[in-house]
Amino acid sequence: MKKVLLLVLVFSLGIGLFNISYASGPVSIRMSNWLEMEAATQNIFKQMIAEFEKQNPKIKVETVGIPFNQYKDQVLIMNSSGDAPDVIMGNSQMMVAFNGAKALAPLKGLLSSTTIADIFPNNLQGTTFNGEVKAISWAPHPIALFYNKELFKQAGLDPEKPPATWEQMIDYAKKIAALGKDRGGNKIYGLAIASAKVAHAGTVFNGIIYSYGGYFLDKKGKVALNNSGTKEAFTFIKLMIDQGIAPAGIEQKDVRGLFAGGQVGMVFDGDMGRGAFRTISGKGTDFDQIMGVTIVPIGKTGASETVFTEHELAITQSSKHQKEAAALVEFLLSKKAMVMYHQDQAVLSARKSIAALPEMNEDDYMKVFNKQSETARPLPATNPMFDNAMLEMTKALERVTVGKEDVGKVLAETEAKIKALYQE
Prior knowledge:
about 425 residues, alpha/beta, D-Maltodextrin-Binding Protein, domain 2, six-stranded mixed beta sheet, four-stranded mixed beta sheet, 18 helices
C-alpha cells in the first residue's frame, strides 16, 4: 500500500513538474520593423534577432515586417485595433505620432538607468515627451557636409581643407559654380539642397535654419517659424538658386544623383550617404577617392549646427510582456548588437560608451559622423502632425525658390497653417 501511495505521489509530482516547465517555457513577443523588408538590412536584422534568442532562450521574437512607406499608418492601425506589437521600431516623425496615439510605455523602470544615462543628451531629448522617455535612440543619422574633391581642385580649392565656416562654404560654392559646365555639357553647381515635394526636405532644412540662429519652435514649444533666423535661412537658399549656384525644386534623391555624377560640389547628407554615392556613381569604393566629408560649417550661432534623423525603439503600453520586450531593446542597444549592425551597415550608436569604441571609429568617415553626433540637434518633432508641418515647410521652400514669392509673406502664412495643424 505504501508503494502504491508513493507511486501516486511521484506521478502527481511529475505531472506538476511538467506543467510548471510548460508554463515557464519561451515567452513570445512581437517586434515591428521595416529592416527585414529591405534587401540591404534584412540579413543583419535576422542575425541580431537570432543572437538575442540564443542569449535569451526563454524569449521567442516574432518579427512583423512592414514596408517603410506604409509603416507609420500600419502600426497606428495595429495599435487602435488592440493588436500592437510589444516592441516598435520607428523614427522621430513616427514616434511622435505613436506617442500621440498613446501607444508608448514610459521606459523609466523598464530599461536600465545605466543604458538611459549612456544616451547622448541631444538624442535623449528627441525621445522625451512631457518629461517622460517614451522611446530610445538606436541608430542616429546626423547630417554632415559631403564635398567633391575633384571639383575643389578644378576651382582652385584645397581638397583637404573643406569649409570651416558658413561664409567659407558659400564662397567655395560660388567658385565651384563658376566652373560652368562639365565635359558632357552638364551644368555644375556649387551646392545642392533638397527643397521640393516631400516632407523630408522640410525636415532636413531645420538644420540650415539652426545655422542661422532660427527655430521652428520657441522656448515654450510653440510654433514660431516666422523669426529673423528662419527668414535668413530661406533668403540664403533663395539667393543660391537665383544666382545659379544651387539647383531649384529637387528632392534628396536628385541631390544624391547630382553629387554622385560629379555635378555638384557640396551636399548635406547622413552617414548612409557613402553607401548611396558608391552605388549611384557606379564606382563602388573607388568613389571614396573623390568624396570628402566634414562636419557642417560653423554658422551664426558659433557652432556646427545640424539635425539628425534616427532609428528608434519603443515598448508599447499594451504589451503583456514588457519585461521581455525591454530585454530585446537592451540587447539591440548593446555593444554586441551595435558592432554587428555597424560592421554590416556602418550605422552609429546613440550610446556614448559605444560611439567611442575603436570598432565604431575605424576610419575618418565614421569619426566625422561620430563627431557630428555630439552637436546634432533632434528634430522639433513634438506634435503628431509634425510630418504634415514639414510638408508645409517644403511648400514654403518651393514658393520662395520656384515661385519667387516674398520670404516674409510666405513664412507668415506658413506659420499660420502649421499653428492650425497643431491646434495652437
